[in-house]
Specification:
The complex is a heterodimer of chains A (about 120) and B (about 110).
Chain A lengths: L3 E4 L2 E4 L5 E7 L5 E8 L3 E10 L2 E4 L7 E2 L9 E3 L8 E8 L10 E2 L3 E5 L1
Parallel strand pairs in A: 2-11
Antiparallel strand pairs in A: 1-3, 3-8, 4-5, 4-9, 5-6, 7-8, 9-10, 9-11
Chain B lengths: L3 E2 L5 E4 L4 E7 L4 E9 L6 E6 L3 E5 L2 E6 L4 E6 L8 E9 L7 E2 L3 E6 L1
Parallel strand pairs in B: 2-11
Antiparallel strand pairs in B: 1-3, 3-8, 4-5, 4-9, 6-7, 7-8, 9-10, 9-11
Classes of the chains: A mainly beta (about 120), B mainly beta (about 110).
C-alpha cells in the first residue's frame, strides 16, 4: 500500500529538548515536504526536498532543520523547541509531474505540544 | 504577500444538491491550482488540480478556473453526507520554488 508514515503521531515535550519527527514514503517519490497546520492559518510549508541531498526552505523554516540522506526518508528536527512550535505537522510526498513541490500524499500527521 | 482566500463556512447543502466552493488568490503569476479534502482529524487528500482557464471534470467534481478574475472554484454534484469535510484550495506560482500557498479552507456540511 502506498503510504507516507510519520512518527510519532503525538508528542508532548518541554521547551529546549531536541526532538525528531520521522517521515518515510514507499512510493519512490522525488519530492518530500513538511507542513504545519494551525487554526486560522491553514497549511504552511516548512521545508521541502526535490531529491536526495537537495533541501530548501519553505515559508516558515525558522526553528526547524531537515535532512534527506535517503530518498524515502525526510526527518524534521527541532533542535530547541519552543511553545510557538506547538502545532499539527504533516509530511507529504509527490512524484515528478507537471508542478514540482505539489503535495500528492500526506502522512497521518504528528500533533506536537511543547510546554 | 501571496494570499489565498476562502470563505470558512460552514456551507450547508442538502443531500443531492450541488455544493459550490470558491477560492480567490492575489498573485497574478499563479499557474497551478489544487483542491484538497480534509476530514476532521485526518490528513488532506488531493482531489483535483487545474492549470488552464475553464472547467475540468472528474466524476462528481468539477474545478473551474478564471485567471482574469483570479478565482478558482470546486463544484460537487449530487452531494453526499460523506462529502462533509473541509476543502482546501492551494495555489502555486510559476518560477522559483513552487511553494504552494493554501487557503484556510471551507467547511462543507451535507445534510440528509
Amino acid at each position: 500500500e502506498a503510504q507516507v508514515t510519520q512518527n510519532p503521531r503525538y508528542l508532548i515535550t518541554v521547551t529546549g529538548k531536541k526532538l525528531t519527527v520521522t517521515c518515510s514514503q514507499n512510493m519512490n517519490h522525488e519530492y518530500m515536504s513538511w507542513y504545519r497546520q494551525d487554526p486560522g492559518l491553514g497549511l504552511r510549508q516548512i521545508y521541502y526536498s526535490m531529491n536526495v541531498e537537495v533541501t530548501d526552505k519553505g515559508d516558515v523554516p525558522e526553528g526547524y532543520k531537515v535532512s534527506r540522506k535517503e530518498k524515502r526518508n525526510f526527518p524534521l528536527i527541532l533542535e530547541s523547541p519552543s511553545p510557538n512550535q506547538t502545532s499539527l505537522y504533516f509530511c507529504a510526498s509527490s512524484s515528478v509531474g507537471q508542478v514540482p513541490n505539489q503535495p500528492q500524499h500526506f502522512g497521518d500527521g504528528t500533533r506536537l505540544s511543547i510546554l | 504577500q501571496k494570499e489565498v482566500e476562502q470563505n470558512s463556512g460552514p456551507l450547508s447543502v442538502p443531500e443531492g444538491a450541488i455544493a459550490s466552493l470558491n477560492c480567490t488568490y492575489s498573485d497574478r503569476g499563479s499557474q497551478s491550482f489544487f483542491w484538497y479534502r480534509q476530514y476532521s482529524g485526518k490528513s488532506p487528500e488531493l482531489i483535483m488540480s487545474i492549470y488552464s482557464n475553464g472547467d475540468k471534470e472528474d466524476g462528481r467534481f468539477t474545478a473551474q478556473l478564471n485567471k482574469a478574475s483570479q478565482y478558482v472554484s470546486l463544484l460537487i454534484r449530487d452531494s453526499q453526507p460523506s462529502d462533509s469535510a473541509t476543502y482546501l484550495c492551494a495555489v502555486v506560482s510559476s518560477g522559483g520554488s513552487y511553494i504552494p500557498t493554501f487557503g484556510r479552507g471551507t467547511s462543507l456540511i451535507v445534510h440528509p
